[in-house]
Amino acid sequence: MIKKNYFLKVTERIAFCLIVAALFTPSFMYAQDLNAGLKLHYTFETATGKNVADVSGNGYDGTLYGATVGPSNGKNSLILGTSGTDYLDMGANTGNLISTLTDFSMSCYVWVNSTNLILGNNGNMIASFSNSLDTGTDMNGVMFLTAKGSQYVVSSTYYTNAIYCGTGTNPALGKWVQMTYTQSGTTGKFYQDGILKFTNEQVTVTPSNLGATQYNMLAKGSYKDDSFFQDAQISDFRIYNRAVTPVEVLMLNGYSSDFISAYNSLTISGDLLEVTGNLSLPQTVGTSNIPVVWTSNLPLVVSTAGVVTRPDKYDAPVILTATISDMVNGVSTSISKVFNIIVKSTNSGNDPLVAQWDFATDSISIVNGVVKVKDESQSGLGLEATVMNDARIRTIGSTTKYNVLDLGKGTGYLDMGTEIGKAVYSLTNYSMCAYYRTENSYTGFGSNGNFIWTFSNTDNVDTTPTGYVFGSLKMQGQNVALTNWNGAQELAAWGTPLTGSWHHFAYVQKADSGFVYIDGVAVKKGIMTNKPSSIAQAGKDGTLFNWLGRSPYTNDVYLRQTLLYDFRLLTVPLTSSDITDTGGYLEAADVINNLNAAYEQDSDYVDPVVKEEMDNFKLGDLSNVTSNLILPVKGTLHPTVNISWKSNVPDLISASGVVKRPNYYTNNVTLTATFSKGIQAISKNFTATVIMVDNTQITSDLIAKYDFTSVTDSVVTDASTNHFKGTLKNNAKVKTIGTSVKYTVLNLGDSIGYFDMGPEIGKVMSHLNDYTVGAFYRIDPTYTQLTSDGNFLWTLSNTKDVGVNPTGYLFGCLKDQSISITPTNWDGTKGEKHISIATAAAKGSWHHLGYKQSGNTGTIYIDGLPVMSSDTITATPSTTLLKDGFIGTLYNWIGRPAYVGNAYLRKTMVYDFRLYQNALTDDQILTSVLNIPATIIALNLASTETPNAVKSIMDSPFKVFSIVGGIKILGLTGNEKVSLFDISGRQLRVNNPISISANAGVYIVKINNYLSKVIVK
After folding, report:
1. Of the candidates 144, 479, 948, 968, which lies 20 to 30 Å from 717 by C-alpha distance?
2. What are the structural domain ranges in the chain?
3. Which top CATH class is 702-941?
4. CA 780, CA 908: separation in Å to the nearest integer?
C-alpha cells in the first residue's frame, strides 16, 4: 500500500530485468531442426495440373483455382492475379491436421505488389481455416493469417469475438516480407522478418478448438464479403505442430548459423535499467566482425555512439536499435535487435506524484478572462493548465465546497500545457486517475471520443499519426498508440459508463500488465506492452497536446456534461487499497461520498453577491442598434463583481461593444455577460438587433447570376443587380464556346481549378428560407472520377474543411445528382438533410442541375424537370447555416468540395449559376425564367461550334404546336431543315416534318435557325 502522507517509489525492477533478460537469452538449447514437427509445407516449385504438393509428405496437397505457381520475384510462390478469384484450396483433409494443433507455428513469405489497392478491405487473408464460408453468420469459429494489419486472428465463434496477435500495420509493398506466428500454451508471438513484433499472453483459443475445419484456403477468406488476397504472392508456407524457437524463426528467414550466432551474441554491457553514464555500443559482432549500425529514438539522451546525457527532471526510456546485415539468396537483408534502456534523471528519487489538479481556490487565477489552474503536486515542475472554450471551474456544495472542472455541453476541455508531456515520455510503471460525474441525461457515449485524458504528439491524428495515450469513459479503458488506431493497444472493460453520481476512474501500469479500476475495483486487467514511453518521438522531449476532456481525433466528440475532480499522474502503480481504503493514498470511497453530498446540497454554488448583481443588471434597449454600445466591466450594485462580455457574432458587435452594421439583412446578436467574483461566475444573455446599413436591402428575387460575361483578369462580376464579385482560382478559366452564337463559360480544368463566388453571396444565402439554386454544366466524356466522393457543382459552406470543423454547408453534387444541407457534416443524426437521384450526372453534353426549397419540401430538377422531391427537408439556410461567429457562409465555390481529400469537379464547363431568394414555379424553372431546354440546345450547338446563329421562335415564320401523340408544324415549304431534340439534347429522327410522332415529354424543334419548345402530353 502507498501511504497517504508519504511513499517510496517502488519499481518492478526485478521483474523487468527478468523480462529483458528473457528477450535476449540465446535459444540454442532448443531444437533447431526445421523439419522437426513440420506437418504441412508448400514450396510452390511446380504444380501437376491443378495439384500443388505438400512436400512434408503428410498428404495435405492443395488445388489451384485461378492462381498459378512458379518462380517470381526470386522465389517459388503461389502467384495471385488481380481478378479477385485466385486461391489455393488446401482441402478438407487439412482440417484433420488443424484439429490436432495446440502448440503450433504458421510461417510464410508474402509479396504485395506496389499496385495493390485493396489492403484496406476486410479479408486479404493469406491463410484461412473455418467450418463455414460465412463465419460471421454461422459462428463456427475461424483462424486466419491476414495481410491486412499483418496479424494472426482466431475465434471460436465469429469475427467480433476474435483474439489478435500482430503488428496492426500492412506489410511493405514491393518486397518479400516473412511472417511467423507461434503459439505455446496461451502465449502467441508474431514475428516479421525474423523480429518479434507482438506478444499476446491471452490467446485462449487453439486450432484444436475449431475441430476438423472444412474450409482451408490460401488467399481466400471464410467471410462471404471478404476480399481475396490478390496482386500478391505467397511463398514457403508451413505449419508446425510446435512453437518454433526464435533461432528457428531466423533460420526460416534464410540467415546462416554464423549470422544467427552473431545476432544472438549482440548485447550491451551494464545495467540497462539504471543508466547513468556512457554506454559501450559494439561496432562489430561475431567471429566475422559483422558491422553494427545503431539508431536511437532519443539521440539527445543517448547518441548512436553511446554518449549519455542525463535529463534534468525525468527518467528517460530510450530505444536503441542495432542493425546487422547478411546476404540471403544473393540479396542483402538486414535484421535489427531492440534494447530498451532507462537513463536516470539527475533528480531521480523525486516524489512520484507528477501532477495533481484538484482546482483548489488558491491555485486558480483569472487574467483577461482566461482561467489558469496550477497543479497541486509537490513535483516543483511549475505545471499550469488553462480552462478552454465553454469549460469552467464550478463549485459544488455550500457547507463543504469543492471546486470541479465543468466540461460543459460543447467543446470545453482543460489544456494541461506542454511541460507535463515531458514526464509522459518517461512513464513505464505509472497511474492516471480522476473523479468524474456525468449527467444521467448524457446521450453522447455512443459516439467516438469521450476521453477523460489525452497525451498526444499531435492534435490531429487523422493527418499526423504520431502516437498518443488516452483514457476513455466510453470504453472504460486506456489506449496507447504508436501511430493511430491501426497500431494501438487498448485495455478496456467496455461496459455501460456509470452516470448520475460521482465515481473514480484509474488506469494503472505495472511492468507489462495493465489494470482498469472503477471506484477502486479492477474491472479489467491484461497485457499492455505499449506504454507512454513507447510513443516518444525523435526530436521531441514530450507530448505537446495534453488535455482533459478532448480527443486528438478531430471528428471525435469532446467529453460533455461531465464534472472532473482531482486528476493525478503518478510514476508508480497504485493498488485497489491505495485507491479506496480509509488511510490509503486516495481514500476514494470517502471522497466519493463527500462529493455526492456536496452535489446534492448545491450542484452549482454561486456567491449571493454575484447572483444579486446579475439579477438586477440591465443593459437598456437593444432592439434597434445602430451605434457602439457601452458594456460595463464592473457591477453597479456591487463594484467588486467583475463583468466580462462575449459576442456570438463579434464581426457585428465586439466584446468591447464596437458595432459594425451588416449589409442586406438586420441581424440578431447574443451578448453574454459573465458576472464573477473570484472563481464564482454566472452568465446572462442579452439579445441585440443590429440594423442593416441603409439602402442595402436586396429587393430583387435574383440574388446572383454568374454567367461569366463580365471578367477582368481573374475577377468575375455577377450579372444580377447586386454585382457580387468572384475570383477564378488555380487553373480555372473563362472560355468562349460557339462562333455565331457565343457563350462564356467557366472551364474548371483537370486539376484543382474552381471559382470562388466570394463572401457576399454567403451573407445573403445564410438568411434564406425558400430559395432556388442551379447551374448548367457539361462533363467531358473522358472524365473517369465522377463517382469519387466530392464532385460538387456548388458549395456554400461555413468551413473549408468539414472534417476538422463541421459547421455546416449546402452543396449540389454531380456524383449522385444530390443536394445536402447540414448544420454540421454528413452525419444525418446531427441534422443533415439529403435528397439524391442516386445516379451520376450524364456526360458528353450540356445539362442543368437545379434545386428548389419551398417550406419543408425540397425538389431536385434535372434539365428543368422535377425528378425527386421530399417534404422532410426541414433544414433551411436560415436555420442551418447561420451560426455563432458567422454573418454568412465564407466559402462559396463552384467546383470545389468542402471536404479536404474529396475530388474537385474536373473536366467540366459550368454556365449561368443562379441563386434566387424565392421558390420559382415549375414553369419558371423550365422556360419562362431560366429557359432551360432552349439554353441546353444552344449550348450543345455552341460546343460543337455550329456556325449558324440560333434564333428564337419569336422570329420564326413557322407555327409549332403539340397534338395528341406528337408535334404539328405549319408554314413549311418543303425546303426547310427540321431537327428534333429531347430535353437532354439528344437528336431524334424526324420522318414527317409536318406531323412528327413523339411520346409525352418536353422537346426542342429546330427549323433552320429557329428554336421552339413543345410539351407533348
Report:
1. 948
2. 13-24+265-343, 38-250, 353-503+540-568+582-601, 627-690, 702-941, 950-1016
3. mainly beta
4. 6
SS3 370: strand
Q: Say yes or no: do domains 353-503+540-568+582-601 and 950-1016 share a fold.
A: no
Secondary structure E strands in 309-467:
316-328, 331-343, 353-357, 364-367, 370-374, 384-388, 392-396, 402-406, 413-415, 430-438, 451-456
For domain 950-1016, give the fold. Immunoglobulin-like (2.60.40)
Q: What is each CA distance from 377 to 355, 362, 486, 566, 570, in whole angstroms?
A: 5, 13, 35, 11, 10
pLDDT band at 118 (very low <50, low <70, confident <90, very high): low
> Using CA atoms, how far apart are residues 425 and 315, in angstroms rounded to an integer?
9
For residue 600, give the C-alpha cell. Answer: 446534492
User: What does the chain come to in residues?
Assistant: 1017
Q: What is the CATH architecture of 38-250?
A: Sandwich (2.60)
Q: What is the DSSP letter of 605?
A: B
The 8-class DSSP code of residue 568 comes to E
- DSSP letters for 714-769: TEEE-SSTT--EEEEETT-EEEEE-SSS-EEEEE-TTTT-EEE--SHHHHHHTT-S
Indicate left, alpha or beta for 352 from its phi (over 0: left) and psi (-120 to 50: alpha). Answer: alpha
Confirm if 538 and 452 have CB atoms less than 8 A apart.
no
Residues 629 and 622: their CA atoms lie apart, in Å, by 9
Provide the whole-model pTM.
0.61
Q: Is the per-residue pLDDT at 949 higher than 50?
A: no
Question: Which CATH number is correct for 353-503+540-568+582-601, 2.60.120, 2.120.10, 3.40.50, 1.10.10?
Answer: 2.60.120
Please provide the DSSP assignment of 811-870 as one string: EEETTTTEEEEESSSS-GGGT-EEEE--SPPP-SSEEEEEEEEETTEEEEEETTEEEEEE
Q: Is 497 helix (H, G, I), strand (E, B) or coil?
A: coil
Q: If phi over 0 gives left and psi between -120 and 50 gives alpha, with beta otherwise, what is residue 824?
A: alpha
Report the distance separating Cα 904 and Cα 751, nearest Å.
7
Query: What cell does 977 get?
Result: 431543315
With a CB cutoff of 8 Å and minimum separation 6, the contacts of 896 are 729, 752, 754, 792, 795, 904, 905
Residue type, 47: A
Cα atoms in the 13 Å half-sphere on the side-chain side of 78: 33
Q: Distance (Å, rounded) from C-alpha 934 to C-alpha 33?
A: 83
Write the DSSP string, 221-281: -SSTTPBPP-SEEEEEEEEESS---HHHHHHHTT--HHHHHHHHT----S-TTSB-S----
Joined together, the cell numbers standing for residue 679 give 472563481
Beta bridge partners of 833: 821
Rounded CA-CA distance 864/932 in Å is 6
Residue 29 CA to residue 797 CA, distance in Å, equals 68
Cell numbers 509522459 correspond to 424
- Record the cell numbers describing residue 268, joined without a space: 550491451
Over the stretch 55-109, which tens digit does the pLDDT of each residue have? 999 999 999 999 999 999 999 999 999 888 999 999 999 999 999 999 999 999 9
In Å, what is the CA distance from 951 to each residue of 299, 341, 927, 938, 957? Answer: 78, 85, 16, 10, 12
pLDDT digits (tens, 9 = 90+) for 335-370: 888 898 889 888 765 678 999 999 999 999 988 778
956-1006 pLDDT, tens digit each:
788 888 888 899 988 888 888 888 887 666 788 888 888 898 888 888 888
Q: Are 878 and 665 contacting, i.e. CB atoms less than 8 angstroms apart?
A: no
CA dist 430 and 608 (Å) reads: 43
Contacts of 980 (CB under 8 A, 6+ apart): 967, 987, 988, 989, 990, 996, 998, 1003, 1004, 1005, 1006
The residue whose grid cell reads 409525352 is 1000
Spatial distance between the Cα atoms of 100 and 578, rounded to a whole number of angstroms: 46
